[in-house]
Amino acid sequence: MKQNDFIATHNDFWNELEQILQTGNINSLGKEQRRQLPHSYRRVCHHLSLAQLRNYSPALQNRLNRIALQGHQLFYARKSRFLQDAGRFFAVDFPRSVRAHKYYVLVSALVFFGPLIALLVAITNDPTIAYAVIDPETAEVYKEMYGERGTIKDETAVGMFGYYIWNNVSIALRTFAMGLVFGLGAIFILLFNGTYIGAVAGLLTTAGLGNNFWPFVAGHGAFELTAIVLAGASGMKIGFALLIPGLNSRRQALKNAAQAALPMIYGFVMLLILAAAIEAFWSPNAWFSNLTRYAIGVTLWVLVIAYLLFGGRGQESRG
Asked: What pLDDT is stored for residue 230 in this prediction?
């Protein structure tokens, strides 16, 4: 193809792309323009390679090279922006959202950890109490499950990782979803989960299996239990907005509450995925001593609490 024909065929596209790229800000583009940007960038790069291959004039090659460079900068700035946004979310937005809803988080933690600790202490003093919560058949399953601990195969770990993600996220999302029943459903689910987990922990401890059970849960407990508390807090936030909408309609109150709680919702899902990874790949293996596992578990609890209490505080005045 001759140069003039090449220009006539593609000049309108180049002009349009140049106008788009002159904005220098991908957020100012329309949805369709953002969607088409990767395709347009690849297309103009192809045109540049053709112009170089066919020895078209330096002026045309320079123009196409300039457009390609601008497209590269804008296109990859988009990816860089995504990473920046993700980094800001974890460093600032998520912990700030937790602190912004501190009363919901506190109530959720009390409702969940209160019965958990109470049942654990009670069963330690009277092991028969566990059977008021767990039927004998299920109790034997738990005892068998934690009766042995050894190194598992990688293929098994991968399969369990998927299972733990599904299991953990489903529990947290049920807790969150039940909060939509004016916040009361989340309270019920938190009470139930706290009671049940406390009963299982007490059962296994008094059955002489504590040296298997506690080291197993030490690694992922900080992430998983924190996520359950945050799921309950998110559900209560939205549920109480429906119960007491204030001057807004219930629909608007629901929308406002959901938007405010969204960082916390994203955050607890990510905590659950992290917990699932630890539970699948690290918790079942007997490579480390129990003392090491306990030390790591305590350290993770301290880090999680410190992160939620202090993360992003330096950015709050700018938020």
From this structure: 95
214 is written with which tokens?
């506690």
Give residues with Cβ within 8 angstroms of 203, minimum separation 6: 123, 127, 130, 134, 139, 142, 143
pLDDT digits (tens, 9 = 90+) for 61-78: 888 888 888 887 776 665
Is 96 within the bounds of a domain? no
* Residue 57 shares a structural domain with residue 159: no
Give how many domains the chain has, as a whole number. 2
Question: Which residues of the chain register pLDDT less than 70?
Answer: 24-29, 75-83, 148-169, 179-183, 315-319
What 3 state SS string does 212-237 have? Answer: HHHHHHHCCHHHHHHHHHHHHHHHHH
The verdict on 131 and 277 lying in the same domain is: yes
Query: Both tokens of residue 224?
Result: 């998983």
Domain boundary among 89, 113, 140: 89
Please tell me whether residue 182 adopts helix, strand or coil conformation.
coil
Same domain, 182 and 308: yes
Alpha-carbon separation of residue 208 from 115, 129, 201, 289 (angstroms): 22, 16, 11, 18
Q: What is the pLDDT of residue 279?
A: 83
* Phi, psi torsion values for 114, nearest 5 degrees: -55, -60
> Which pTM was predicted?
0.71
Q: Which of 55, 89, 123 finishes a domain?
A: 89
pLDDT at residue 240 in the model: 82
Residue 279, domain member (yes or no) = yes
